[in-house]
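User: Hey, quick favor. My workstation is busy. Could you predict this chain's structure for me?
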Amino acid sequence: MVNIRGYLSSNFTKSFLTIFLPVYFIVSMVFLIQISSLTAKINLTFYDLLKLYMLSLPEIVFYTLPLSFITALSSVLGRLSQDNELIALHSLGIKAKSILKGFFILALLFSLLLLSISFITMPLGVQAYNAFKTEKRAEASFNIIPGKIGQKFGDFYIYVKDKDDKSFQNLVIYNQTKSGEEQFFSSQKGELLQEDGTMLLKLTDGYGYTYTKNKLQEAQYKELKVYDQNREEGFEFKTVLSYWAQGKTDKKRMHKALFNLFISLIPLLSVYLIAAFTIINPRYQKNHTILTTFVVVFILYLIASVFQKNGNLALVLVTSVFLWLVGRWLFNKRVSRYF
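Assistant: No problem, here it is.
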């Protein structure tokens, strides 16, 4: 029996890898396109793109594993049935329930892996991904190019003649307030600094002009600080527990948790549903492996998409138990009493 389980596991591993790698590549391409679209807004190097891709790996694996498991299980059981190997095992006294027990253990391991990815690894990866984007957006907003007109620093338009790292020479900034007041500052030197988490432009040795409809004011200064009030708030990392605890008040976060939970349970829920239609006697029944895979994937992911927008934990659990019982009933009716 140990050798038979090893044989079945070997077949499943081969099928799984054959399916997982192409699916993983396709999902990776989707994420890479999404990441590449960020280059239209912020400057990213190849290393930055690679880092964002690595941070997306938990999500890529999470979306790839359930689909690969269903397809591999359906393919293995369908092929073994078509080649009469399952009938041969039955003739040796090995029932379908015993064969499926090994696959059920695999499904349990897959579900536990998906649960750990979705509720532990993914929140950390998503937060690191968003923090990296926030940092890059902040850098892009302060990437002032010498000689270019129309650049902004906060509410101010800025023109720089020369630049050396974070130091600027011969710069001019302009701002028009809502009250109709115009401000104009020129300086021989400027520096980009950070103070209490807020970016500021420190100007030295310059002149400032304030113009309204009735008067013009001029001032000379040795030092002037211009703060960027429009800067994005710094990203705050949360622990895994506090991240999901926000689901109590954030419906989007709660529905995301429900979606992750149901997707993680898909390997367990699909075992009996797949086996009920792929374990067949090829002399009397047709092989519907492809159709079975498509229908099971469609139904399970359709339910998951519903939980992503509506539902609660109790409904997810009830639906999961119902699907498992339906699968078990179909398996007993179509397979177990014959094999």
